[in-house]
Design brief:
Length: 164
């Protein structure tokens, strides 16, 4: 989530995280939350965890929890984020990862889900990490409770004919 000042985003040069603006009533710096999501577009199923950062250790925790929730072997499609590509990641027997080509978010159904979440969460400033968690939970609830909504949003035509 981007740290914002009022309603306008803070812009900075590409590849650099914008500096956090301290709020007048708080001496603490901004905290970020990172939502890691796995979606099965054919079944409309979602698995997600809100993580404190995008380090390899945090993504490993996501993978471990996700794999523990699986009953069948599954392929997780990821983008080229550094944490997703680390050789330090460990997988059990039910999970394997495939990377989509660079600069092709249209191939990743999760990106469509994130686009909808951004509509709900953009341009908001939170006083605490707990408020971030509450806002994310409220934003994802409609999708957790409606598999058809997830399918309509993420099951691209080319996926419907893909081998399983």
């Amino acid at each position: 989530m981007k740290c914002v000042s009022g309603r306008a985003p803070i812009w900075d040069e590409c590849g650099r995280r914008p500096p956090c603006v301290r709020r007048e009533r708080s001496a603490s710096a901004c905290e970020y939350g990172y939502l890691s999501v796995a979606i099965n577009p054919l079944r409309g199923e979602i698995f997600l965890l809100l993580l404190p950062d995008m380090r390899v250790e945090s993504f490993q925790a996501f993978l471990t929890e996700f794999e523990d929730s699986l009953s069948d072997s599954t392929t997780l499609i990821t983008d080229g984020a550094a944490a997703h590509c680390s050789s330090r990641l460990k997988f059990g027997g039910r999970l394997q990862m495939e990377r989509i080509p660079p600069y092709s978010p249209e191939l990743n159904p999760v990106e469509r889900f994130f686009k909808e979440l951004r509509k709900e969460l953009k341009n908001r400033v939170f006083d605490s990490y707990e408020q971030v968690e509450a806002a994310v939970i409220e934003a994802v609830k409609p999708y957790l409770n409606d598999k058809e909504k997830v399918k309509q949003l993420t099951c691209y035509g080319w996926l419907q004919n893909a081998p399983t």
